[in-house]
From TrEMBL:
Domain UvrD-like helicase ATP-binding: 6-291
Pfam families registered for this protein in UniProt: PcrA_UvrD_tudor, UvrD-helicase, UvrD_C
Bilayer-crossing regions: none
One GO term describing the cellular component: cytosol
SUPFAM superfamilies: P-loop containing nucleoside triphosphate hydrolases
Entry protein name: DNA 3'-5' helicase
DNA sequence: GCTCACGAAATTTTT
DNA sequence: TTTCGTGAGC
C-alpha cells in the first residue's frame, strides 16, 4: 500500500481509491473531508492521471489554498501546481479571460464586487426615473442575483408568472426592467458581477460546443467541495463538464447547508444519486474533532430537521466537559463573561489565545466582545468586516488601474474622473453620462471626443488632460509590470503626496493603506503562482481580476496568537479548541428574518449545528436577557435550539434556572433582576479588525521550572510543539527561523508573551 | 465644489 | 447607537 493511504479509516480509503465514475462523499463535520479530497487527488496522480486533467472547485480561497498545499505535501513535488484548484469564481474568471470574447466581452473584463454592482443598480434605477428609496439597490440586487443563480434571463424574468406576482405584491413591478437595464449596462461597461462569472461560464459552455468539448476533455476528473452549497448555475456547469467522462466526485454534508440565501439548493446533493447511473456513495461518519458530548448535542439538535441523508456521526474521542449554557443580563455582560472566561481558561488549562473563537449570528454582535477583550488586554482579530480592498481609498486607487485596463468600466471612471479634484464637476460628469447614453458609446469615448460636444474651454481642457494622463498610463503597460504602473499612478495623480500631507489620523491610515496596497501588488508580482495557480500571468488585468475575489479571511495571518471573532458562516470549515456561541436567543439565533417557513428555520438549525461542531474540547453557549439593538434595549427569550439539547450533556449552573452558586458570578454579571449595568461611557475607539495589546513590559512573570525539568534535544523542534522554558514558562512554538547553524524559535509563552529564543543557547523542555 | 449639520435607516448570513 | 445620505450654506 502506498504510504499516503496509511492512516485512513475504511470509508475514507474507499473514497480515496475510487478512481473512475461518479462518487458522492457524505462527509460529516470533522470527519477528515479535506484529507480525503487531497489524498484522492494524490492517488489519482499516482495512478497516472495527468495533473492538468484534474479540476477541484471550492467555495473559499482559503479552502483552495489549503488543498493545494496539502496535495503538494503528499506528492513532495511541484506537480500539484498544474492542478486547477480554486473557487468556482476564480477558476471561471480565469477561463473566461480566454473565452469571454465569444460573448462579446473583452478579455480584460472588469469584475464588479457587490458595491460596484449596487452602484450600477442605483444609476440604472435613477435613469429609469424610478425612486431609489423604493427600489433599494440591496433589495433589487438580491432579486437580480437570485434570478441569475436560477439561470433566468431578464426576458424570462419578465415573463415568469410567479416572479411577477411576487414583485407586484411587493409593489416593485419594475424589477424586470431594472434587471434588463442592469445587465446591458454591465455588458456595456465590459464588466461582470460575481454571479456573471458563473452565468457567463455556463453560457459559453452551453452555446459553444467547441468550448464545451475542449473543457470536457481537459477536466477529465472533477471534484467539488461543499456540494450542498452549490446553486443551479454551478450545478449545470458541473453537469456539462462531467457529461462525457462522468468522473465527478462531490463532497458535502447536507446538515451543513447554510447558503440558501445565496441561491444554494440543498436539492443538488440530495438528488445527486439520480443524476448519474451507478453513483458510488461513501459516508464519512467518524468525527475526529470533537468530544462525545459535543457530538451528541449536535446530533440531537439536527434530528429535528426533516428530509436529511441518513447518517450517524460518532466519535472515539473523550467524553469531554459538558456544554456550558450561560445566561447574562445584557450583551455587555455577555462580552465580559466571555473575556473573563478566556482569561481563566488560559491560566487553568494552558490554552493560547488562538485556541478560542467567539461565534455569532450577525456581525453587529462583535462590539461587546471587542470592548471586553480590549479591556482585558486580550489580542483578537475580527474576520469578515470590511475587506481591505473595499476601503474607499483602496477602491479609488484601484479604480485608476481598472480604467487603464478597461476604459469602458464606467463605475471606475466615475470614481476617479474628479479624484483628486481636477475641475471636472458634477454638472460636467452628468453631461458626459447623458451624452454617452444618447450616443450609446462608452463614457470614456465621450471624454476623448469632448471637443465634438461643446464643452466650455476650461472644462474641455480638464477633460483632455485627464484623457492624456490615462493614455500615458496605458502606454506604460507594454514595458512595465503592474507594480511599476501602480507606482506611476500614485505619483502622477498626486494621490500619494496628497495623502502623505494629510496629517490627520485617518489621513495617515489612508496613506499607510495605499503603501500596503502597493506592497501587495509587488508581492503578487514576485510570487511564483497566483491564487488559483495561474503561473506566469503577471499582467495588471490578471491582478485586478483576482483581487476582487479576495476576502479579508484570505490574508490570514495563521500564526498570530489571537482570539478569533467571526460569524458562524465564516467559521464553516474551521475548528477551535474552545468555542463560544454567543447570542443564542430567539429572533437573533434563529434570526427573526428566518423563522417564517420551515425551510428557513431548518437552515438556522443547520447553522446552529455548524456552530456547535466547530468546537474540539469546550463549548459555551451564551445568551442575554436583554441587549441593545438599534440603540434600544430589547428583551429576547432563550433560543428554541437550547430546548432541543438533551439536558444530560448540558451544564446549566450559569444559566439561571439551575442551582446558583457562590462563584461571584451573580455580582459580576448582574445576576437576576439586577438593573442592567450600564457601563460608564468609555471613550469609544474606532472599531479595528485587529487588536494587539501593547507589548508586555520586560518584566518577566516568574516561572518555577517543573521538578522534572530536563532540557530536551531541540534540533528537530517544529512549529506547534509545546515547550517549557526555565524562566518564561510554558509556551508554544510559533515558528522556527534563522539559519541551520543558528536557529531562532519564536515562542508564544502563556505568561510572558511572544519571545524569540536562540535554540543554541536556551534550555527548553519539549512538553508534548 | 466642499463642508457641516441634521435626519433617517440599519442588522442575516457572502464568493 | 452608529452610519450614511442629503441639502443648505460658504
Amino acid at each position: 500500500m502506498q504510504d499516503y493511504l496509511k492512516g485512513l479509516n475504511e470509508p475514507q480509503l474507499e473514497a480515496v481509491t475510487h478512481i473512475n465514475g461518479p462518487l458522492m462523499i457524505v462527509a460529516g463535520a470533522g470527519s477528515g473531508k479535506t484529507k480525503v479530497l487531497t489524498t484522492r487527488i494524490a492517488h489519482l496522480m499516482a495512478h497516472g492521471i495527468d495533473s492538468f486533467n484534474i479540476l477541484a472547485l471550492t467555495f473559499t480561497n482559503k479552502a483552495a489554498a489549503e488543498m493545494k498545499e496539502r496535495v503538494e505535501k503528499i506528492l513532495g513535488n511541484t506537480e500539484a501546481r498544474n492542478l486547477y484548484i480554486g473557487t468556482f469564481h476564480s477558476v471561471f474568471a480565469r477561463l473566461l479571460r480566454a473565452e469571454a470574447h465569444r460573448l462579446g466581452y473583452p478579455a480584460n473584463f472588469t469584475i464588479y464586487d457587490t458595491d460596484d454592482s449596487r452602484s450600477v443598480i442605483k444609476t440604472v434605477v435613477n435613469e429609469l426615473n424610478l425612486d431609489d428609496k423604493h427600489y433599494k439597490p440591496n433589495i433589487v440586487g438580491s432579486r437580480i442575483s437570485a434570478a441569475k443563480n436560477a439561470l433566468m434571463t431578464p426576458a424570462e424574468y419578465a415573463l415568469d408568472h410567479f416572479i411577477q406576482q411576487e414583485d407586484m405584491r411587493a409593489n416593485r413591478p419594475a424589477i424586470a426592467q431594472i434587471y434588463a437595464a442592469y445587465a446591458s449596462r454591465c455588458f456595456k461597461n465590459g464588466a461582470m458581477d460575481f454571479d456573471d462569472l458563473l452565468l457567463k461560464m455556463y453560457e459559453v459552455l452551453k452555446h459553444f460546443p467547441d468550448a464545451l468539448h475542449k473543457y470536457q476533455h481537459k477536466f477529465k476528473y472533477i471534484m467539488i467541495d461543499e456540494y450542498q452549497d452549490t446553486n443551479p448555475v454551478q450545478y449545470q456547469i458541473a453537469k456539462l463538464l462531467a457529461a462525457v467522462h462522468e468522473n465527478i466526485c462531490v463532497v458535502g454534508d447536507d446538515a451543513q447547508s447554510i447558503y440558501s440565501f445565496r441561491g444554494a439548493t440543498i436539492e443538488n446533493i440530495l438528488q445527486f444519486q439520480k443524476d448519474y447511473d451507478d453513483v458510488k456513495v461513501v459516508k464519512l461518519e467518524q468525527n475526529y474533532r470533537s468530544s462525545k458530548n459535543i457530538i451528541h448535542v449536535a446530533n440531537e439538535v439536527i434530528r429535528n430537521n426533516k428530509g436529511q441523508i441518513p447518517k450517524n456521526l460518532w466519535t472515539d474521542n473523550a467524553e469531554g466537559d459538558k456544554i456550558r449554557l450561560v445566561r447574562t443580563m445584557t450583551d455587555n455582560d455577555e462580552g465580559r463573561f466571555v473575556a473573563d472566561t478566556i482569561q481563566e481558561q488560559k491560566l487553568r488549562n494552558h490554552y493560547l489565545n488562538r485556541d478560542f473563537a467567539i461565534l455569532y449570528r450577525t456581525n453587529a454582535q462583535s462590539r461587546s466582545f471587542e470592548e471586553s477583550l480590549r479591556r482585558m488586554g486580550i489580542p483578537y482579530r475580527i474576520y469578515g468586516g470590511v475587506s481591505f480592498y473595499q476601503r474607499k481609498e483602496i477602491k479609488d486607487f484601484l479604480a485608476y488601474l481598472r480604467v487603464i485596463i478597461n476604459t469602458k468600466d464606467e463605475e471606475a471612471l466615475k470614481r476617479i474622473i474628479n479624484y483628486p479634484v481636477r475641475g471636472i464637476g458634477k454638472t460636467t460628469i452628468e453631461k458626459c453620462v447623458i451624452i454617452a447614453n444618447e450616443q450609446n458609446i462608452p463614457m470614456f469615448d465621450v471624454l476623448t471626443r469632448a471637443a465634438e460636444f461643446g464643452f466650455k474651454a476650461g472644462t474641455l481642457e480638464a477633460l483632455q488632460n485627464f484623457v492624456t494622463m490615462i493614455r500615458y498610463f496605458q502606454s506604460l503597460l507594454t514595458e512595465k509590470n503592474a507594480y511599476d504602473v501602480a507606482v506611476q499612478v500614485g505619483k502622477h495623480t498626486n494621490i500619494v503626496k496628497e495623502l502623505f500631507n494629510d496629517k490627520t489620523t485617518e489621513g495617515l491610515a489612508r496613506y499607510e493603506n495605499i503603501q500596503e496596497l502597493l506592497n501587495s501588488i509587488k508581492e503578487w508580482i514576485e510570487s511564483p503562482a497566483n491564487e488559483d495557480g495561474e503561473v506566469g500571468n503577471k499582467s495588471l488585468g490578471a491582478y485586478l481580476q483576482q483581487i476582487t475575489l479576495l476576502t479579508d479571511a484570505d490574508d490570514d495571518k495563521e500564526n498570530s496568537d489571537v482570539v478569533k471573532l467571526m460569524t458562524i458562516h465564516a467559521a464553516k470549515g474551521l475548528e477551535f479548541g474552545c468555542v463560544f456561541v454567543a447570542g443564542v436567543e430567539e429572533s437573533l439565533f434563529p434570526s427573526g428574518m428566518a423563522i417564517n417557513t420551515r425551510e428557513e428555520l431548518e437552515e438556522e438549525r443547520r447553522l446552529f449545528y455548524v456552530a456547535v461542531t466547530r468546537a474540539k474540547q469546550r463549548l459555551w453557549l451564551t445568551y442575554a436577557n436583554s441587549r441593545y439593538r438599534f440603540g434600544q434595549l430589547v428583551q429576547n427569550e432563550p433560543s428554541r435550539f437550547i430546548d432541543e439539547m438533551p439536558e444530560q450533556y448540558i451544564d446549566k449552573s450559569y444559566a439561571g434556572g439551575g442551582a446558583r452558586n457562590s462563584t461571584g458570578f451573580d455580582q459580576r454579571f448582574g445576576g437576576f433582576g439586577a438593573a442592567p449595568a450600564r457601563k460608564a461611557p468609555v471613550s469609544r475607539q474606532p472599531s479595528k479588525p485587529e487588536y494587539l495589546p501593547p507589548a508586555p513590559p520586560n518584566k518577566v512573570v516568574e516561572h518555577k521550572p517543573s521538578i522534572d525539568f530536563v532540557a530536551s534535544d531541540v534540533s528537530a523542534l517544529q512549529a506547534g510543539q509545546e515547550v517549557e522554558h526555565q524562566k518564561f514558562g510554558f509556551g508554544r512554538i510559533v515558528a522556527i527561523e534563522g539559519s541551520n547553524h543558528n536557529p531562532i524559535a519564536t515562542i508564544q509563552f502563556q505568561l510572558n508573551g511572544e519571545k524569540k529564543i536562540m535554540l543554541n543557547y536556551a534550555k527548553l523542555r519539549i512538553v508534548e
